[in-house]
Amino acid sequence: MAETETSQQQNGLQENRVFPPPADFAAQAAISGMDAYNKLCAEAEKDYEGFWGRLARETLDWHKPFTKVLDESNAPFYTWFEDGELNASYNCLDRNLTNGNADKVAIIFEADDGKATTVTYRQLHERVCKFANALKSRGIKKGDRVVIYMPMSVEGVTAMQACARIGATHSVVFGGFSAKSLQERIIDAGAVAVITADEQMRGGKALPLKAIVDEACAMEGCDSVRDVIIYKRTGGNINFQQGRDIWMHELVDGQSAECEPEWVGAEHPLFILYTSGSTGTPKGVQHATGGYLLWAAQTMKWTFDIKPNDVFWCTADIGWVTGHTYITYGPLAVGATQIVFEGIPTFPNAGRFWETIAKHKATIFYTAPTAIRSLIKASNADENVHPKKFDLSSLRLLGSVGEPINPEAWMWYYRNVGNEQCPIVDTFWQTETGGHMITPLPGATPEVPGSCTLPLPGIMAAIVDEAGHDVPNGQGGILVVKRPWPSMLRTIWGNPQRFKAGYFPEELGGKYYLAGDGAIRNKDTGYFTITGRIDDVLNVSGHRMGTMEIESALVAHELVAEAAVVGKPDDTTGEAICAFVVLKRARPSGDEAKQIAQQLRNWVAHEIGPIAKPKEIRFGDNLPKTRSGKIMRRLLRVLAKGETITQDVSTLENPAILEQLKEST
Ligand code: ATP
Ligand code: MG
């Protein structure tokens, strides 16, 4: 094949490699073949409420059945299954005691140091009941907010489930956040208790958690916190504040192993979770019990095609929505066995993911593009950590979430991790959407690298222009969802105006959910490709371009590991393209940097066209990322302009990198 053709293919939007589902996978899949998919879509089109009502009755156990599916009278404050009553923890645990799963392993816990332990459904039920009773003994009750600031652990999942059991609304704060970020979330949520650990283990090191809680609680405005409950993880030294602090094991000791679930209305807030802050100040996204749990369970069946013998592994932290839906709730609601991983992908070395898959015979593996890109870089440097060195034959399905996956990274994942046997589900969704929105179905959808393909049945995703009018396929625009769906956020905690204005803007008619991402649909297939955040659309001499296309072209170059593209004001072209690039090798400087930059500029011109040529290229050892691993282009925009950063950087992982990226090559 001529080189031009190959490189054209590598460019996300002109991708023409297609990977149909393997026949044996399709034959056993929950949704098998496109006809089955189309049939479900048609059912939703024809009778929207009937469709969702059927799924809700089939998928969840209701204490009191609902009589009305959807109420749109106070749009955009939609309600689902409102007069129904249920309990999320009952659906995740108690159901599994009577359906043959009681002695099935619910969680394989893989600790940082490689030690593995298992917990069955019966044991998890007992632990959650005891902990729920312990919370009640401290006066924590339905409607109270509880902040969870814990490491990846069975106890972390237990704490979330225990809150759900008693009807307390949890708000998990990722264990990498600072005291200041924790304080802000405690105040915003008005938390009555914080559940934490003495320390957490990450990459062989013990890092403080309780000390950070102490620091946060000592700051202004945290008076609402009456209890700090501490899980002993390492036994490291901590300060103990009498009357407020209590050890989890002491509190749980002697509690009854039975705890009648608190039956709550379907709209009862199950949790509040703050978004990553990639595009601005984090928002306290509020989710309801019934609709959220329905979609967590349903997408386990559809997107992950979960089967009784699967060993499911989602590598996300419980501090992110992915860890909520695809660790704490989804897998348990369908009675699956899953791996909960405490460690980091690079300890003791960058082969840890592959080693762990082989060790526990994981069948479904779900991770983020940022992890894949960094492991490509690592296995380039050291062949001993290359996935091909491990026995990954147990895998049958792979997944990606968090950012667009560049076609080159997709191909690497497909070939080296999936051995060209496993479908890849590139799942587009958000904290706000509660679960998957646009994704291939592994037994139905022919996959195209870099495209999240088609919306799930019942999800009315579309692309519109700035006035809310549909745009034809092949033309980029704004991604919206035209109808409410059960697992959508209900509001921004304490800020309904921000919810309404931010997600249902008047400019689009006030009825469409605005995702905040740009997208384009393929002319022939109708497949969706996410082109980047709306804020990140570039306008160069009147040409509108998504950041994703240029970034994927850069990543398709053999030297490049990662790239982020932003615009900066330019007198002649309106906006000029500035690219921040991480190479697979060490960061170049001086003449060499200039020479590689020129090479990359020519490459992009050749791949996409001269209009997409970056005016400026800066090299770094890394890019500024949120603690969930997403590139923070909003900070790069400021750096590109040569200005000082005054924005919210509370969720930035690696502040030192900003200094390095200030200078142009
Ligand atoms: P904030 O809203 O505070 O800026 P955030 O949007 O990064 O933070 P999340 O809810 O964690 O917070 O991330 C959702 C976003 O992640 C989506 O809007 C999209 O930009 C991106 N994303 C997630 N999955 C995919 C995917 N498969 N393909 C493309 N983009 C994805
Ligand atoms: Mg967002």
From TrEMBL:
Record note on modification: Acetylated. Deacetylation by the SIR2-homolog deacetylase activates the enzyme.
Binding site for CoA: R202, G203, G204, K205, T322, S541
Catalytic activity: acetate + ATP + CoA = acetyl-CoA + AMP + diphosphate
Protein name: Acetyl-coenzyme A synthetase
Domain of life, source organism: Bacteria
Pfam families, A to Z: ACAS_N, AMP-binding, AMP-binding_C
Cited function: Catalyzes the conversion of acetate into acetyl-CoA (AcCoA), an essential intermediate at the junction of anabolic and catabolic pathways. AcsA undergoes a two-step reaction. In the first half reaction, AcsA combines acetate with ATP to form acetyl-adenylate (AcAMP) intermediate. In the second half reaction, it can then transfer the acetyl group from AcAMP to the sulfhydryl group of CoA, forming the product AcCoA.
GO molecular function, one term: acetate-CoA ligase activity
Residues modified as N6-acetyllysine: K630
InterPro entries documented for this protein: Ac_CoA_lig, ACAS_N, AMP-bd_C, AMP-bd_C_sf, AMP-binding_CS, AMP-dep_synth/lig_dom, ANL_N_sf
Segments forming domain AMP-dependent synthetase/ligase: 99-485
AMP-binding enzyme C-terminal domain segment(s): 549-630
Presence of keyword Membrane: no
Co-factor requirement: Mg(2+)
EC number of the protein: 6.2.1.1
